[in-house]
Amino acid sequence: MVTSSDSASTAYRTCPLCEATCGLAIEHRDGKVLRVRGDADDVFSKGFICPKGAALGELNEDPDRLRRPLKRTGDRWEEVSWSEAFAAVDAGLNRVAQQYNRQALAIYLGNPSAHNLSGTLYNRALIKALGTRNVFSASTVDQMPKHLSSGLMFGAPLMIPVPDVDRTSYMLMLGANPWVSNGSLATAPDWPGRLRALRKRQGRFVVVDPVRTQTAAHADEHVALRPGADAWFLAAIIHTIFDEGLARPGRLAEAMNGRAELEAALKPLAPERVADATGADATTIRRLAREFAAAERAVCYGRIGTCTQRFGSLASWLVDALNAITGRLDEPGGAMFPTPAHEPRRATPTPGGRGFDVGRWNSRVRGAPEVLGEFPVAALAEEITTEGEHQIRALVTVAGNPVLSTPDGDALASALSRLDFMVSIDPYLNETTRHADIILPPPPPLSRTHYDVSFYGFAIRNVANFSPAVMPLPGDGWPEWKIQLRLVAGLSGLAAGVDDQQHVAQVDDFVCRQVVGREVRDPASPLNGRDPEALIAELGEPRGPERLVDFLLRAGAYGDGFGAHPGGLRLQTLEDNPHGIDFGPLVSKLPGALKTPSGRIELAPPAFIEDLSRLEAALDEGDSPGLVLIGRRHLRSNNSWMHNVPGLMTGRPRCTALIHPDDAKEAGITDGQTVRVRSATGEVTVVAELDPSIRRGVVSLPHGWGHSDEHARLRVAARTPGTNTNILASRHQIDPLSGNSVLNGIPVSLGVA
Description:
Elements: E1 2-4, E2 9-14, E3 23-29, E4 32-38, H1 51-54, H2 56-60, E5 70-73, E6 76-79, H3 82-99, E7 105-109, H4 117-130, E8 135-137, H5 144-154, E9 162-163, E10 170-174, H6 178-181, H7 191-200, E11 204-208, H8 214-217, E12 221-223, H9 230-243, E13 256-257, H10 259-265, H11 271-278, H12 282-294, E14 298-302, H13 304-307, H14 312-325, E15 335-336, H15 380-385, E16 394-398, H16 402-405, H17 409-416, E17 421-425, E18 438-440, E19 461-464, H18 480-491, H19 500-521, H20 532-539, H21 545-554, H22 571-575, E20 581-585, E21 601-602, H23 606-618, E22 627-630, E23 656-659, H24 661-667, E24 674-678, E25 683-690, E26 698-700, H25 715-719, E27 746-752
Parallel strand pairs: 7-8, 7-16, 10-11, 10-14, 11-12, 13-21, 16-17, 17-18, 22-26, 23-25
Antiparallel strand pairs: 1-2, 2-3, 3-4, 5-6, 5-18, 9-15, 19-20, 22-27, 23-26, 24-25, 24-27
């Protein structure tokens, strides 16, 4: 919705820059953003805004954003027409597929894809058109352990329980810093306000983290755990729950398998045995277990710090297992499952389904198992450089900069330079896309529609909001969904001689028929048996993501069911409510929503039980390394491209090495000195920042920096390039179950540069 005055117009939309989904009020005139403020009437965020949202105008108008396709010849770039760019992409990808086979093609999906309506709706069509198993994404440097845990325990990898923070009375938080991250896999604007409210109602929250983060500083208690020790810590908590007879699974007790197996498997991991490895004494571990079990409403929440380590899958599983055995799963104030507006309506859901399989195929070089249809991104470089059948020779990247965001970025950059062909859908010429043959720029964020398909599925409250484009497409720009579908058309061999727009319309109609067809064929759907063509006709215009969203909403949990539920939700309803619609707090959904073959919660999946032997064996490794590396987040940063926004780059330098003063003294390092951080994989130089808030023996560097490539065009970022911490991470070190990269707990050494 847009309101106008003589001087300016105000548009209301959801911020697309992180998972918080905050409502923004955007004042603009003549295609320029005048001011961005929080939307005080937004049903979810109620006016909350962070620096990233306030800088959306600068990001939208960034002069370094590409407006037209670029074609590379050697190290030179030239702007070309869209038709010429698409013809080059068709020729390049099809040439590789015909000369070798479809397995010579690959795709990488970056983190911004999940924040983009086009990406969430059309990426699968692009993957299918490529016809390859070589699929990689940012998920394996971020959250794949949570998908694995949910898949094996609940039968669906996207069925991730979220903390009902607004109703809990006790929160145990591990590896998360929502005060600056705005939350992750737990969509909620204004985490600081929600955590303050928890304490104000006499609740308690405990932060377990190697650093006294901004979140930990506001907590009732901070436990400075050793990096990578979360799985031991959680195992000892659950051990105590069983050992002291505190397990109370509540109403779901009869819907759980494996309670005895879980208890037996964790018997060797008593608090007294893991205390040295975790850095938390046994008395503290047992006390926290008792507090958690005794609280009126409690929830355990673990995030990126629990995923990006060598036991990431075990830690993610144990978070869910702790909630389950104490009766906190699927209960108000505990860990609950959202009901997003686009989730299909099911009148009488019954438990049971196909479940979740992994390892359906394996990567060519190291044999890493597929998880959620993806290989570990840590394996991408070797799949490009290792000769043999199905060697990757062409790559499509969508909204990602893996050279800076994945392990051993230098090796990946070298690998990308060897590709036969590469195309990137990206607004920037950055450290990754500079290796592409063609760059296809999507429109700025305010020139596209927005609906959070991904993050409403992780929201701590059932809400929905739709944001029309604020501004028209600049120049002859193409919307991202059309770019993707035009690539699909080229890969699908549609007849030559048809113009690009007709190609897109053909593929869009095909995708729409697939989405509608799946629903009408589902016996559990209220739309089962309806005529799909009649439903599509009723959707009308426009085509593209708006048509798909309209269908999903009408067929969804609160939808009108195409007449079955008069007055129910449809896209127009959201357009008429620009501040969003609140459908209320989360409600219990189990056991009906379970998709495991047994129709029950699987507390002890065999893969996790077997991997406990690795966890136990690691206790006997002896003394831990002298220093280990961890990452960190900052409120003004989320992805590498945000370092090109002037308003987000003010203040003190943020790409520093956080070091405890005592560790610095031993290494002869002073505050502000340039130091060398070395791992078995690489070495970086960075400015030291001495801070007693970090645990001794730990060094912290932020993620996503290293803007020193002379071929990139990120002028603001290049002025304060920072260093790429992922150079220090080995692409050979992954969590074996999920394929997630190990980015925390990396042994390092320090020295004066």
